[in-house]
Amino acid sequence: MDVAEFVHAGDGVWWGQGSAEPEPLVNQLLDAVDRIGPVRAFSGLTWNARLTHDIPDNLTVLSYGGLGVLRKLSRNGRLDVVPCHYSALPRMFALGQLPNDVGMIQVSPPDADGMVTLGVGVDYVADAVQHTRVLLAEINHRMPRTIGGPRLPLSRFAAVIETDRPLRASPSRPGDDVDMRIAENVASIIDDGATIQIGVGTLPSAVLAALAGHHDLGFHSGMITDGVLDLMEKGAITNAKKEIDPGVAVTGAALCSGDGYYRLREFPIVFRPASYTHAPAVLSHLKSLVSINSAIEVDLLGQVGAELAGHVHIGAVGGQVDFSRAASLTGARSIIALRSTRGTGDTTESTIVPRLSGGVVTTARVDVDAVVTEHGVAMLTGCTVAERAARLIKIAAPEHREALEKALAEQEV
Q1: Tell me, what DSSP letter sits at residue 296?
Q2: DSSP H or E stretch at residue 399
Q3: Are 216 and 238 in contact (CB under 8 A)?
């Protein structure tokens, strides 16, 4: 296959994200775009090193955030971020507000009827394929077949390539003592029978490990990880008490270790498109929903910044607001968990701040029930503005509390 036969100057291209990114096709596009002409491309989370620097001038990269290696593009001024809720992506593809001329996806091998699945990358892909003129596929013989998403006939693709390569594993570092203390604090305010939404990374992994002693938890989230599979194996996640989709874990994508992808088939897991996993109408039925999300900083009003560090996009709105708002309004509890400081050595800064340094509010204060650091839990629901500030200062790093109190006294918040 030559991608240049199907992508033309002025086209808009999108591709799947994370472990479902069709990297061979993306790399073909990068090699060919200078002879194709200008192309706008939409990418989600990626660890493709080809997208870190020196991308062709003819390629404009868009994303919903600076996730994975895209933050390097952001630092270099080569990433155009489209700020939006994750739940808005399906509609934006449908309306042509995101590139949708050509889609590139990684799929499972065809079954006896010649049908493939989107494997571990259903998420926005399942919604985007409905509004895309040309589809190109990487058929990866190691991509597991999954249920819940669309089954596509081979005839739907303009061209395919076949590979037999391992799915990209989730990069992570082991949790440290600070992560463990935060995780224990988070676990202490989650009841048995709660339906969990949680992100990916070191701290979310620590939180999941801290939930091992809980009972009858449910799972409904944008991504599933090894930590969730471990809880299902231990019997902590049974999905028995979910108000909808009882008995099954619901997700849009998987981000696991190498072995984790093979474990997916051992558990009742349904992969659904973003138009289901993040839809307000769906989430409103989950009265037991507890959202657990991370942040870069939280100000003394309880506003959350999860997108910018300075002027560099290192995060995204993503599904944080979709889930935080649902958990706060119609669910059980909305939690923001973060380390009390960032940086190392003598250059640490407080992540509890008078005002958001990035100047952008990701999640509104009214959608946050609790903020958690290694120093404790600040329950904010029902508190006045002054009470919120006082509680947030108590869970800030001790060495930064005096400065926060001074800022509060000087009415800088």
Answers
A1: S
A2: helix 398-409
A3: yes
At 391, is the secondary structure helix, strand, or coil? helix
pLDDT at residue 347, rounded to an integer: 81
Which residues, 6+ apart, have CB-to-CB distance to 130 below 8 Å? 93, 94
| Cβ 154 vs Cβ 160: under 8 Å | yes
pLDDT of residue 306: 94
Residue 392: what residue type? L
Domains of the chain, CATH where assigned: 3-163 (3.40.1080.10), 177-409 (3.40.1080.20)
pTM, 2 dp? 0.96
3-state secondary structure of 148: coil
Q: Which residues of the chain have pLDDT under 50?
A: none
Specify whether the CB–CB gap between 36 and 9 falls below 8 A.
Answer: yes
Measured distance CA(375)–CA(395) in Å, rounded: 5
Contact 123, 17 (CB under 8 A): yes
- Residue by residue, DSSP assigns 300-357 as TT--EE-SEETTEE-SB-TTHHHHHHHHHHTSSEEEEE--SEESSGGG-EESEESS-T
Measured between alpha carbons, how far is 48 from 23 in angstroms, rounded to an integer? 7
Q: What are the two backbone dihedrals, phi and then psi, of residue 232, each rounded to the nearest 5 degrees?
A: -70, -40
At 412 the pLDDT is: 61
Can you give the pLDDT at residue 413?
55
**Rg, Å, the chain Cα set:** 21
Token look-up 């959608």 returns 367
Q: What pLDDT sits at residue 54?
A: 77
Length of the chain, in residues: 413
Q: Which residues contact 31 (CB under 8 A, 6 or more apart)?
A: none
Return all residues near 281 (Cβ < 8 A) that are at least 6 apart.
none
